[in-house]
Specification:
Helices cover 19% and strands 32% of the residues. It is elongated and about 105 Å long. The protein has 2 domains: 235 residues, Spore Coat Polysaccharide Biosynthesis Protein SpsA, Chain A (Alpha-Beta Complex); 217 residues, UDP N-Acetylglucosamine Acyltransferase, domain 1, CATH 2.160.10. Strand 4, helix 3 and strand 5 form a beta-alpha-beta unit. By secondary structure, it is of the alpha/beta class. The longest helix has 21 residues. The strands form 5 sheets. It has a 22-stranded parallel β-sheet that branches. It has a 7-stranded mixed β-sheet with strand order 5-4-1-6-10-7-11, with helices on both faces. Bound molecules: uridine-diphosphate-N-acetylglucosamine and calcium ion (CA).
Length: 477
């Protein structure tokens, strides 16, 4: 493998290494830290997505704690465009030790960009600038000034020149007063890395091999060290505890809300919106408070979303209105399980659209109506307390309150076909497989097991009997 990599012409080439082996003790969780969710995606997925945008030759992910879980999660999101390689670091003896494990996989020329799996919101343009500053022959460190630098490695300078990074725990009182800190992100000249990593020791307070010690070696070797300082704390924020994760989540959501409003989306309250995935909005969309969007959601022109809706993987066409407390739960985006709501449709309040619900134009789905794997053609209505599962519903069908499709026989699912202009009364049970012919009427309270001809009135219930002067039993006095 190494031989093949050496043969690749690597002038200006880029390898990205993501360090993700640490335990994340302060999260107090069984889940590896980098698999915690931020805006609906794992911390590592954020970093990986940014890394892929740089079009590197490869991304190497260093795993250790929860390696099996972390690797499985990453494979699930693997991008075909970039080679992804894993290295196990066992035990975890520090960030320098982590990079030593990756060394055999790395190209020996070009730039090695080191990222942290727990610094999720770093931007690709910042990383491009850092790589450009490195240029393959300088050591470039991403830094920032923090009013409270506690816990971070400090950038120690002599005059302007960077001399070293000193970890907080190892720093003197004077060094702790330095407010410029290291982000955990650096761009290293690949051809220097091997020698520098070989010189690392662990004579420090934590007994770890610190990657940050290579700064001293660069200075000693006469390799220029550049600090690329940014001011956007958000990009550098690390996640070490549930409090930090929650703070970053809010900041992240705020950023999304501001972007949406800049596009013209009217948010009743930008502080009460959660987008855990991608939300695309056409013109004149308005969204009331406490809505959650997951996966891939597309809202057409003029769509209105009422308060307290949870909407996942759905395409909602122009002019549709989703009333409050509606739950839409589409399957995989782009698959036949994604939910579609047609132009001008009205859904809710308190409606539930499950995977494969496809509503045509002007369909009405009212309160406590559940739709799963069913197609409703233009103008069909199910306004109250009903279930439509595995059904094909024609145009202008009216589906009465309390009616259900009995689509499951305990082993298999069966389809119900309700042709155009059918009127299903209240409280009907349609036992699938079943077809109700076009224009037919089904009397309320019917339990149907057989297909019905077009235009017919179908009834399947006992006849009403009235016994005159009926005497109810009475208790003896
Ligand atoms: C590190 C830097 C510090 C910087 C800070 C910024 C070092 C020695 N210190 O400190 O200068 O200010 O980040 O956030 O690099 N990891 C491994 N294997 C290990 C140890 C860590 O893969 O053996 C990974 C962790 O999973 C994490 C990253 O490296 O993704 C950083 O490790 P962490 O322990 O959080 O370092 P800090 O103490 O924050
Ligand atoms: Ca950290």
């Amino acid at each position: 493998m190494a031989a093949i990599l050496e043969n690749i012409s690597a002038t200006g080439s880029l390898d990205v290494v993501i360090m993700a082996a640490g335990k994340g003790t302060r999260m107090k969780s069984k889940l590896p830290k980098v698999l915690h969710l931020l805006a609906g995606r794992t911390l590592l997925a954020h970093v990986l997505e940014t890394a892929v945008q740089l079009a590197p030759l490869q991304v190497v992910i260093i795993t250790g704690h929860g390696a099996v879980e972390v690797e499985a999660a990453v494979k699930g999101l693997a991008s075909a465009s970039v080679a992804l390689n894993f290295v196990r670091q066992q035990p975890q003896l520090g960030t320098g030790h982590a990079l030593q494990q990756a060394l055999p996989l790395l190209h020996q020329d070009g730039i090695v960009l080191v990222l942290s799996g727990d610094v999720p919101l770093i931007r690709h343009d910042t990383l491009e600038q850092l790589a450009a500053a490195c240029g393959g022959n300088k050591l470039a460190l991403l830094t920032i000034d923090f009013a409270d630098p506690t816990g971070y490695g400090r950038i120690v300078r002599q005059g302007d020149a960077v001399q070293a990074i000193v970890e907080h725990k190892d720093a003197s009182a004077a060094q702790r007063a330095i407010t410029e800190v290291y982000s955990g992100i650096m761009a290293v000249p690949a051809r220097r890395l091997k020698a520098w990593l070989a010189r690392l020791g662990n004579q420090n307070v934590q007994g770890e091999y610190y990657l940050t010690d290579i700064v001293k070696f660069a200075v000693a070797d006469g390799v220029p060290v550049l600090a690329h300082k940014i001011t956007d704390a958000f990009q550098m924020a690390g996640v070490n505890s549930p409090v930090q994760l929650a703070e970053l989540e809010r900041a992240c959501q705020r950023r999304t809300a501001v972007q949406l409003m800049a596009q013209g989306v009217r948010l009743a309250d930008p502080a009460r919106l959660d987008v855990r995935g991608v939300l695309r909005c056409a013109e004149d969309v308005s969204i009331d408070v406490n809505c959650i969007f997951e996966g891939m959601v597309n809202l057409g022109e003029g769509v209105r979303i009422g308060a307290n809706c949870v909407i996942a993987n759905a395409t909602i066409a122009a002019g549709a209105v989703i009333h409050p407390f509606t739950h839409i739960e589409g399957g995989q985006p782009g698959s036949r399980d994604a939910v579609e709501v047609g132009c001008g449709a009205r859904v809710g309040p308190f409606a539930r659209l499950r995977p494969g619900a496809k509503l045509g134009a002007d369909v009405h789905i009212g309160n406590f109506v559940e739709v799963k794997n069913s197609t409703l053609a233009q103008g069909a209505k199910a306004n109250h307390l009903a279930y439509l599962g595995d059904a094909t519903v024609g145009e202008r069908v009216n589906y009465g309150a309390g009616s259900i499709t009995a689509n499951y026989d305990g082993a298999f699912k069966h389809r119900t076909v309700i042709e155009a202009d059918v009127h299903i009364g209240s409280n009907c049970v349609l036992i699938a497989p079943l077809k109700i012919g076009a224009g037919g009427t089904v009397g309320g309270g019917s339990t149907l097991t057989k297909d019905t001809p077009p235009g017919a009135l179908s009834l399947a219930r006992s006849r009403q009997v009235s016994i005159a002067n009926w005497k109810r039993p009475v208790k003896p006095a």
